[in-house]
């Protein structure tokens, strides 16, 4: 690409060079897998008959024709609002497949947690590890070798990364992600945040809080703030794994149905049995992953992807680290303001121009690679368009060159910030991620005495007792993947926000997670090495002076720690199934590598 930004090009080339051995090994494996398992005719007759015995009217097509058989891997359950629409998808997708002479079967289901339900409770300690369980479940679903393509049904936080990781083990097959879309807008996100803080201060009742939350989370569809779930959808577009314009079309609408139909038709066409073979292993390469990183930065997406992106890359034989993200952040402007970075939700973002406008701007400015393979035959240029229905026909049209609302979306030439807002901070405490796009620049630097906790419950108790009413760096340690599975510490946002609103300088330093829903308090998160197993966080004590500075990229304790013994971690939790994941906890690697026990054990 002739106009590619020099820093984007430099980072991409560094990733390619760094990944040369791992990527070659991965592609060689995919070639061998395709040669050995790329056609179900290698199965014995008894094996094959087992595989389509339940296919009813599709039996003969699967058995005796060369038609593509598509494997549906679904994360359906009807507790997750985002995944509730998927209940109806398989039967419709089978009909769509027959329209082009193909067949489709549900290959298997994968678990699908809702972080919003488990947030702040012990079940949240299974959340990050559910990603690796999803990767394994995806592999189990596809291990029957009955399929010519993968239709992947997933939306939310760990589910899409887990599906990507698992599906990449079958990268000799093409893959299309099929989303379901966001729920309608509810109460304003700023109003929701206000009620949460009032409740934290004891100024709102539980009934008032519940009424507010029900006004926000109210119907089928993805939650409308720009957290990890919606960041996933953005990234699938930038990685070329969606039908263009699919990310933010509402569920249960004619346009959504038309996009699902197009996804099935296109998946059939890009199998080996179609006329345009596009295996997932070739689509998800170094350039596609850089495009996803740039999209994440340009839109102010979830910090969870500081772990998920390296993990997904690693599954494709590619190595990405936080220095790569930091350097990209320095040249990628922030062109979207969606809650928690702004007041608008993803429906407002979509109406203002959405992904089509974002991709058009990034392509035009040379910030993403246009010369990539995607599931669309038009390549990345197709994602600079928007999908619409014209007399019941699905068509794509150019996105308007101007934003529909410049309080939500802006051109690269006039961004909200020249910086993408996800910076690496490092020093004698370790390396961490700081999401600057959600924080007032006046708060990017703080130096204060630390108050050290081993749980978020301890923070809550100290806040209620008034012990944190001062300038303070709140340190919450033993929250990393090896300690307890690395739960999100979302319940800390309201009390820390209250302290900040009182005029105190407040920051959070933790080896846990805060996610894309974190908000306005400066935070150094995902600190690695984590406290358990040698991280400097285990040496910190109350009163140590800590300095966090996003401007200089520093994370330091200014107190001399010489001679200190590390604090003892709390015992690993039991109950809520956590003990079943001790094997994951013991084998997890660092956050910067993706915090993946599965990939660590597989040495990929």
UniProtKB/TrEMBL annotation:
<keyword id="KW-0311">Gluconate utilization</keyword>
<dbReference type="Pfam" id="PF00920">
    <property type="entry name" value="ILVD_EDD_N"/>
</dbReference>
<dbReference type="InterPro" id="IPR020558">
    <property type="entry name" value="DiOHA_6PGluconate_deHydtase_CS"/>
</dbReference>
<keyword id="KW-0408">Iron</keyword>
<feature type="domain" description="Dihydroxy-acid/6-phosphogluconate dehydratase N-terminal">
    <location>
        <begin position="69"/>
        <end position="381"/>
    </location>
</feature>
<feature type="binding site">
    <location>
        <position position="223"/>
    </location>
    <ligand>
        <name>[4Fe-4S] cluster</name>
    </ligand>
</feature>
<feature type="domain" description="Dihydroxy-acid/6-phosphogluconate dehydratase C-terminal">
    <location>
        <begin position="408"/>
        <end position="595"/>
    </location>
</feature>
<dbReference type="InterPro" id="IPR056740">
    <property type="entry name" value="ILV_EDD_C"/>
</dbReference>
<dbReference type="GO" id="GO:0004456">
    <property type="term" value="F:phosphogluconate dehydratase activity"/>
</dbReference>
<keyword id="KW-0411">Iron-sulfur</keyword>
<comment type="similarity">
    <text>Belongs to the IlvD/Edd family.</text>
</comment>
<feature type="binding site">
    <location>
        <position position="156"/>
    </location>
    <ligand>
        <name>[4Fe-4S] cluster</name>
    </ligand>
</feature>
<dbReference type="InterPro" id="IPR037237">
    <property type="entry name" value="IlvD/EDD_N"/>
</dbReference>
<keyword id="KW-0119">Carbohydrate metabolism</keyword>
<dbReference type="InterPro" id="IPR000581">
    <property type="entry name" value="ILV_EDD_N"/>
</dbReference>
<protein>
    <recommendedName>
        <fullName>Phosphogluconate dehydratase</fullName>
        <ecNumber>4.2.1.12</ecNumber>
    </recommendedName>
</protein>
<dbReference type="InterPro" id="IPR042096">
    <property type="entry name" value="Dihydro-acid_dehy_C"/>
</dbReference>
<dbReference type="Pfam" id="PF24877">
    <property type="entry name" value="ILV_EDD_C"/>
</dbReference>
<comment type="pathway">
    <text>Carbohydrate metabolism; Entner-Doudoroff pathway.</text>
</comment>
<comment type="function">
    <text>Catalyzes the dehydration of 6-phospho-D-gluconate to 2-dehydro-3-deoxy-6-phospho-D-gluconate.</text>
</comment>
<keyword id="KW-0479">Metal-binding</keyword>
<dbReference type="InterPro" id="IPR004786">
    <property type="entry name" value="6-phosphgluc_deHydtase"/>
</dbReference>
<keyword id="KW-0004">4Fe-4S</keyword>
<keyword id="KW-0456">Lyase</keyword>
């Amino acid at each position: 690409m002739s106009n590619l930004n020099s820093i984007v090009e430099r980072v991409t080339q560094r990733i390619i060079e760094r990944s040369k051995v791992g990527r070659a090994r991965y592609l060689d494996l995919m070639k061998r897998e395709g040669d050995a398992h790329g056609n179900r005719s290698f199965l014995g007759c008894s094996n094959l008959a087992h595989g389509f015995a339940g296919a009813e009217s599709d039996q003969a097509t699967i058995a005796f024709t060369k038609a593509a058989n598509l494997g549906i891997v679904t994360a359906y359950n009807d507790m997750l609002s985002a995944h509730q629409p998927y209940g109806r998808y398989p039967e419709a997708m089978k009909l769509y497949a027959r329209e082009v002479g193909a067949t489709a079967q549900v290959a298997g289901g994968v678990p699908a947690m809702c972080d919003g339900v488990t947030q702040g409770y012990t079940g949240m300690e299974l959340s990050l590890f559910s990603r690796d369980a999803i990767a394994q479940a995806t592999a189990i679903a596809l291990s029957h070798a009955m399929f010519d393509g993968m239709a992947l049904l997933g939306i939310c936080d760990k589910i899409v990364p887990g599906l990507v990781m698992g599906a990449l083990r079958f990268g000799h097959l093409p893959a299309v992600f099929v989303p379901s879309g966001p729920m309608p807008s509810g109460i304003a996100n700023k109003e929701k945040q206000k009620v949460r803080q009032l409740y934290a201060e004891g100024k709102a009742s539980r009934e008032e809080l519940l009424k507010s939350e029900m006004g926000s989370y109210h119907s089928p569809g993805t939650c409308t703030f720009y957290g990890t779930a919606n960041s996933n959808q953005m990234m699938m577009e930038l990685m070329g794994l969606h039908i263009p314009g699919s990310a933010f079309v509402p569920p249960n609408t004619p346009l959504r149905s038309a996009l699902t139909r197009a996804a099935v038709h296109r998946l059939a066409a890009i199998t080996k049995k179609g006329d345009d073979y596009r295996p997932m292993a070739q689509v998800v390469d170094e350039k596609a992953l850089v495009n996803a990183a740039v999209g994440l930065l340009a839109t102010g997406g979830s910090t969870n992807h500081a772990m998920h992106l390296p993990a997904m890359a690693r599954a494709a034989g590619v190595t990405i680290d936080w220095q790569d993200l930091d350097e990209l952040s320095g040249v990628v402007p922030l062109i979207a303001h969606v809650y928690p970075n702004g007041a608008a939700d993803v429906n407002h973002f979509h109406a203002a121009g959405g992904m089509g406008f974002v991709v058009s701007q990034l392509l035009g400015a040379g910030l993403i690679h246009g010369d990539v393979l995607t599931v669309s035959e038009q390549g990345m240029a197709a994602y600079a368009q928007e999908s619409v229905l014209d007399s019941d026909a699905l068509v794509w049209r150019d996105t308007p060159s101007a934003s529909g609302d410049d309080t939500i979306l802006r051109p690269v030439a006039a961004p909200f910030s020249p910086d993408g807002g996800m910076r690496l901070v490092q020093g004698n405490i370790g390396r961490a991620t700081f999401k600057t796009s959600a924080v007032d620049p006046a708060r990017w630097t703080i130096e204060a005495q630390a108050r050290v906790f081993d749980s978020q419950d301890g923070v809550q108790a100290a806040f209620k007792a008034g012990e944190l009413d001062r300038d303070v760096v709140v340190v919450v340690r033993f929250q990393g993947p090896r300690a307890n599975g690395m739960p999100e510490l979302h319940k800390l946002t309201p009390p820390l926000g209250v302290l900040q609103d009182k005029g105190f300088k407040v920051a959070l330093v933790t080896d846990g997670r805060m996610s894309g829903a974190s908000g306005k308090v400066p935070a150094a998160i995902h600190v690695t090495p984590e406290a358990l197993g040698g991280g400097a966080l285990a040496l910190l004590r109350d009163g140590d002076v800590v300095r966090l500075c996003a401007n200089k990229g520093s994370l330091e304790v200014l107190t001399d720690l010489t001679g200190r013994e590390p604090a003892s971690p709390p015992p690993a939790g039991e109950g809520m199934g956590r003990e079943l994941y001790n094997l994951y906890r013991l084998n997890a690697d660092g956050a910067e590598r993706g915090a993946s026990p599965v990939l660590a054990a597989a040495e990929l």
